[in-house]
């Protein structure tokens, strides 16, 4: 089981509610077993779940070992083994899901019903029982994913760019608006060929979801939140309404800055912001344009990266001084590598120390023996950071090509959030070894990163103590907001679009227009060039062809502030929320662990209550956290006409 960060293009394998929902290649078995026809009892359902728990214990270590070997040692052989293990696992899951249909009408215990629901939700693309349709669905999924993975924009004859290369242009605030629009268009063109596939995918996915007892695929995706799909819709909208004033203020300010930079012709003073000018292909996180909007140039930036690099270089010098004889170039390369590895361990220990300071246990010995913390010199690995639970009983690992910089340090804290979640819920039956809902898993490590304040970094000796004035606070909040606040409308609308598609409320003839309606309504952005129904712009985002639900990220961004607020309260902290550091507070740690230990065994409301004392998700802590920035933005926005009209068709 593994969990990864939101990436722009990398394959994301998500642990969905206690199950490794690892439909990476989109493989599905070609044959389906007929559902059992005899009437089933509650006792049968209990036995069925017990069998699944036993199977997980037996099968998952094998599955994880094959995936781990492949990800940390890419060869034809390990790929063959991993894909075989993946097929076997998906075949098993899909067989069990089919069998579970016999309990659709059985009145079983709460735990058993919950376990069966979690089993059904273990895949985001349930296949119909008809073998021909199963095969067709599998084929469409792998075609869509392959189309995304191999998408290229050919700028000129013989000059074809892949997504990371195209992103370099779009992300660069110094590139001309024309160059960025061209690159934006180049990437979005690559999604056109899967438009028809998506229409068929929605039909087949809906059919599979209906067989499992859901009205459509969108309702199935919303079935994992211990409330009705309609209630969940309303809940997400309520959270959005809570936090949107901050987004609106940021949108207004950034639009003003962009207008000043590029003029009325390119960015109007009011209305929508062209989506290609926000430093990101999907306008989902805007920190790349920070230089254009930095409130107080140069004030208060902490050079954590420089501090980490200095430590790493110190390590290298030490190794060199201990070397006997005259080192060859090969020896020097090896010493460099050893210094990188030592630094990676040191950075991981910094993150571990945060968790143990809260009263959580030290990581098991095997974590350091078996994790991959640095890019090996002798082989290819998948560098995308991820956290793994190999056997559901303590063999946890991270895989990350750690380099000595600030972002990587923060990523380690994030990954260890997953690791401690695993360790805390390892005592539960395997089907319940998962997050309370899918927004929780991503939130845990991010909560901890909120405590990495300038004071904290000074306290642990990473950077010198320095005076933090209000200007430095505003600068650092702006940087955070450009990632955390700008993400919110995007995090909401991606599934908003899919729920409409799956429900039949958005017809294929309006796919693209419906997409841009939502982007206008929530993000306040417009396409850089005219779009038509020949385009398929949703398909230019990995999670659409990769069929990964997205609302979890929105929820995680809201929850992490709510959790931080609750932990700070538990710690008796009384200052401004943005300066709170829960390091070393065991009372906060105890609350944290109580919540984590419940895994997916109970409705999330109950689990959230363990930590926060409330059964509702709440966006008010996010607003409180950014109070200084909001005040700054309101002052800056005075005299500007804020907001935008999202034209309704
Ligand atoms: Zn993660």
UniProtKB/TrEMBL annotation:
GO biological process: proteolysis
InterPro entries, per database record: Peptidase_M2 (IPR001548)
GO cellular component: membrane
Disulphide bridges: 154-160, 383-401, 568-580
GO molecular function annotation: metallopeptidase activity; peptidyl-dipeptidase activity
Pfam families: Peptidase_M2
Residues annotated as catalytic: 415 (proton acceptor 1), 415 (proton acceptor 2), 543 (proton donor 2), 543 (proton donor 1)
Record CDD domains: M2_ACE (cd06461)
Residues that, per the record, bind chloride: 225, 552
Chain sites annotated for binding Zn(2+) 2: 414, 418, 442
Residues annotated to bind Zn(2+) 1: 414, 418, 442
PANTHER family associated with the record: ANGIOTENSIN-CONVERTING ENZYME (PTHR10514:SF27)
Name the record gives this protein: Peptidyl-dipeptidase A
Organism per entry: Sinimarinibacterium flocculans
């Amino acid at each position: 089981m593994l969990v990864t960060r939101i990436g722009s293009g990398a394959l994301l394998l998500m642990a969905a509610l206690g199950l490794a929902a690892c439909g990476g290649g989109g493989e599905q078995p070609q044959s389906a077993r007929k559902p059992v026809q005899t009437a089933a009892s509650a006792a049968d359902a209990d036995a069925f779940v017990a069998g699944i728990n036993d199977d997980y214990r037996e099968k998952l270590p094998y599955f994880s070992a094959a995936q781990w070997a492949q990800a940390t040692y890419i060869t034809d052989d390990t790929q063959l083994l991993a894909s075989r293990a993946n097929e076997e696992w998906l075949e098993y899951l899909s067989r069990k899901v089919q069998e579970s249909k016999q309990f659709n009408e059985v009145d079983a215990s709460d735990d058993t019903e919950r376990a069966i629901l979690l089993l059904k939700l273990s895949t985001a693309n349930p296949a119909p029982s008809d073998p021909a349709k199963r095969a067709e669905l599998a084929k469409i999924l792998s075609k869509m994913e392959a189309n995304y993975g191999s998408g290229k924009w050919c700028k000129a004859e013989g000059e074809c760019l892949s997504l990371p290369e195209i992103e370099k242009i779009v992300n660069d605030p110094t590139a001309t608006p024309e160059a960025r629009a061209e690159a934006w268009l180049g990437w979005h063109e690559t999604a056109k060929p899967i438009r028809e596939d998506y229409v068929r995918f929605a039909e087949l996915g809906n059919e599979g979801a209906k067989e499992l007892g859901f009205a459509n695929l969108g309702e199935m995706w919303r079935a994992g939140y211990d409330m009705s799909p309609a209630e969940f819709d309303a809940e997400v909208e309520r959270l959005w309404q809570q936090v949107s004033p901050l987004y609106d203020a940021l949108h207004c300010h950034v639009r003003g800055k962009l207008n000043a930079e590029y003029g009325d012709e390119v960015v109007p003073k009011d209305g929508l912001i062209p989506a290609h000018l926000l430093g990101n292909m999907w306008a989902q996180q805007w920190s790349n344009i920070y230089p254009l909007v930095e409130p107080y140039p140069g004030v208060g930036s902490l050079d954590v990266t420089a501090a980490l690099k200095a430590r790493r270089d110190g390590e290298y010098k030490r190794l060199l001084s201990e070397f006997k004889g005259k080192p060859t170039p090969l020896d020097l390369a090896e010493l460099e590598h050893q210094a990188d590895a030592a630094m990676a361990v040191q950075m991981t220990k910094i993150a571990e120390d945060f968790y143990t300071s809260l009263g959580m246990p030290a990581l098991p010995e095997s974590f350091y023996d078996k994790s991959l913390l640095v890019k090996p010199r002798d082989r290819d690995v998948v560098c995308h950071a991820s956290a793994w639970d190999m056997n559901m009983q303590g063999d946890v690992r991270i895989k990350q090509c750690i380099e000595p910089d600030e972002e990587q340090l923060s990523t380690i804290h994030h990954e260890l959030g997953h690791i401690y979640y695993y360790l805390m819920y390892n005592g539960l039956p395997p089907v319940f070894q998962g997050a309370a809902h899918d927004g929780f898993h991503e939130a845990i490590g991010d909560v901890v990163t909120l405590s990495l304040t300038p004071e904290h970094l000074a306290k642990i000796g990473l950077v010198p103590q320095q005076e933090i004035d209000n200007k430095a606070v505003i600068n650092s909040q702006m940087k955070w907001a450009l990632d955390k606040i700008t993400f919110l409308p995007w995090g909401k609308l991606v599934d908003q679009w899919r729920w409409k598609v799956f429900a039949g409320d958005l017809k294929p003839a309006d796919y693209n227009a419906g997409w841009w309606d939502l982007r206008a309504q929530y993000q306040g952005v417009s396409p850089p060039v005219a779009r038509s129904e020949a385009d398929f712009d949703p398909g230019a985002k990995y999670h659409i062809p990769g069929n990964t639900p997205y609302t979890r990220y929105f929820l995680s961004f809201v929850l992490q502030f709510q959790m931080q607020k609750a932990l700070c309260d538990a710690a008796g902290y009384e200052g401004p929320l943005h300066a709170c550091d829960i390091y070393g507070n065991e009372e906060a740690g105890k609350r944290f662990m109580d919540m984590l230990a419940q895994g997916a065994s109970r409705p999330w409301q109950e689990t959230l209550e363990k930590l926060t004392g409330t059964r509702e998700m709440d966006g008010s802590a996010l607003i409180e956290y950014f109070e200084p920035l909001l005040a700054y933005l309101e002052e800056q926005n005075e005299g500007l006409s804020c907001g935008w009209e999202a034209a309704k068709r």
